[in-house]
Amino acid sequence: MIDFSSLQGETLWERWQYFAQTTPDKEAIIHWRAVEEPVRWTYSSLLETANKFSAYLKNIGVKKGDVCALIIRHDPYFYPLYLGITGIGALPSVLAYPNPRLHPDKFRQGLAGMALRSGLDWILTETALEEIILPFVENKDTTVNELYFPLEWDLERDINSETIQELSDIRAEIKPDEPMLLQHSSGTTGLQKPVVLSHVAILKHVENYGKSINLSADDKIVSWLPLYHDMGLIAAYHLALASGITMIQIDPFEWVLAPIILFMAVSEEKATLTWLPNFAYNLLADKLSDEDMEDLSLESLRMVCNCSEPVRSESHKKFKERFEQFGFNKNALAAMYAMAETTLTISQTTTGKQAEEISVDREMLASGTIDLTDDEAIARVCVSSGKLIDECTLKIVDEFRNELSSDGVGEIAVKSVSMFSGYRNYPEKTAEVLDDEGWYYTGDIGFMHKDELYVIGRKKDIIIVAGNNIYPEDVEDVVSKVDGVIPGRVIAFGEDDIELGTEQVSVVAETRLITDDDFDKLRVAILRAGMEVSINIHNVYLVPPRWLIKSSSGKASRKANRQRIISKSDDKVWSKK
Questions:
Q1: What is the pLDDT of residues 147-157, one digit of tens each?
Q2: Domain contains 306
Q3: Cis peptide leading into 310, omega within 30 of 0?
Q4: Burial level of 525, CB count in 10 A (0-12/13-18/19+)?
Q5: Which of these three, 438, 459, 480, is where a domain ends?
Q6: Contact 338, 346 (CB under 8 A)
């Protein structure tokens, strides 16, 4: 295991420089491409190019504390550019590259919202987006100074000794507790919120999380996760660079088109660690054939960590059964609980063992009580997100934020040495979730059992029918198993019933069926599936494949999909009440 106490550097740049000096020829980043040879950055070559970017950025006027928005696709020069921004005390902020189907006006509106809250100072992007972004930058109300295309800068010239000294002076003034990056808290409800993290918060998180997974200098991380999301940025990117290990970066767009490239990289590079959202387990198990997996081995993987909440037992089971024949070890199936507000990790499965599972009475759970049961008819299988990492504390609270007793079900509140200090330029939202004692109220519902954390849903998503709590995840799990429904492509939410004065359970389910007769049969099957677990589904909406709106982390957004269904703005909906 890495001895973090021996690693030098109180800021991220100092840590990266330490590895460039002590392990100059070790591979830092393997930039993986589906049909071309990978680009391999050593720690020394990465820092050398980052220095050149720092010089460029300084010369165009980027200053310490400025926020540099990065809107760049999978490119080998993204990594030294990111480091180069940090190297002059500015804050990198990775934003999603726009989907080609997204209207330019909609994209500009999103940028304007982020600029308002985050205070974007510079946009670093590709020339392909110039026509789309320039009107936003030229708007008199924007906070952005200028738009630049750093992938076109000349990096062949060496920087002179005077510039090197100027950069050294700038870096000497950067303090560990000063801001290092700005990331946006992902989620399925509301506008993404800007979270600023300091050097020390990230370094402490890397140390505590690294210890929790027994991180070794021989580990290799592989990831297709987008770097605008905290899972990709912290778990894969910063964890590797601040620990001196190797990471393999895969293009998220290429992975979506050809998921097999993840396992190709695992097999060829002997990767040991990866993080996945829950849907990826199902997708990989369903999409990859034996022919796809021919000559590939997953033996090197010692941890595949599920970063979703709640974690789905069926997804883990499907993944394990599908890939055991290709060397996958079931004890590599891990889980974590994480969020941008705590840099990333709060809890993690113990290394070398499969994530714990318990079966509890579904109705008792809804009433706030943990009652273990072997009766599958009434059981909900809950998957643990592991034990708390070092220097992180947690409590479970009721609706009045009073701490509950052991095994109580309620909102999860956390404190961490890697905690954020509040949402940037968002005091009202900060006040809602962060109290004077430093407790962050997550909005997630869960419980502790035998020192393991179980996350079972979102507070805002709970459906209250005649005073009874119903977790949408329970409904979605049941409906996903109905023949004719596309598994995992279901959302459940509460819909007001004015006559009865309560909420009723509504379901949106994707299906490939196309006839009215098939629709009628499927609705009946869905209603019966709910009745079998004592859930009365009131409204069923059937929609075509790929209809559901997803968040940046790949989770179906209940709020967005509820609004879309209720507004009746889409004629590709077959509904019945």
A1: 999 999 999 88
A2: no
A3: yes
A4: middle
A5: 459
A6: yes
CB 225 within 8 A of CB 231: yes
- Asked whether residue 473 carries a pLDDT value surpassing 70, the answer given is yes
pLDDT band at residue 190 using 50, 70 and 90 as cut-offs: very low
**Is 294 domain-assigned?**
no
Query: Which residue do the tokens 């049969």 mark?
Result: 521
Domain holding 336, by residue range, is 331-459
Predicted pLDDT at 571: 61
- Tens digit of pLDDT for each residue in 430-442? 999 999 999 999 9
pLDDT greater at residue 47 or residue 495: 47
- Mean pLDDT, range 52-65, rounded to an integer: 97
Answer whether residue 83 is part of any domain. Answer: yes
**CATH number, domain containing residue 343:** 2.30.38.10
Give yes or no: residues 446 and 468 share one domain: no
What is the pLDDT at residue 576? 54
Residue-wise pLDDT for 543-575, tens only, equals 999 899 876 556 677 888 888 888 765 666 665
Q: Do 283 and 319 form a contact (C-beta atoms < 8 A)? A: no
Q: Are 122 and 69 in contact (CB under 8 A)?
A: yes
Q: Are residues 84 and 171 in the same domain?
A: yes
DSSP string, 325-365: GGT--GGGEEEEEE-GGGSSEEEEPPTTSPPPEEEEEHHHH
* Residue 508 and residue 366 in one domain: no
- Same domain? 131 vs 241: yes
Give domain status of residue 552, yes or no: yes
- H and E: helices and strands count for the chain: 18, 27
What secondary structure, in 3-state letters, does 220-268 show? EEEECCCCCCHHHHHHHHHHHHCCCCEEEEECHHHHHHCCHHHHHHHHH
Query: Quick one: how far is CA 237 from the chain centroid?
Result: 13
With contact defined as beta carbons under 8 Å apart, do 453 and 466 qualify?
no
Q: What are the CA-CA distances from residue 574 to residues 310, 472, 491, 505 (Å)?
A: 29, 21, 15, 17
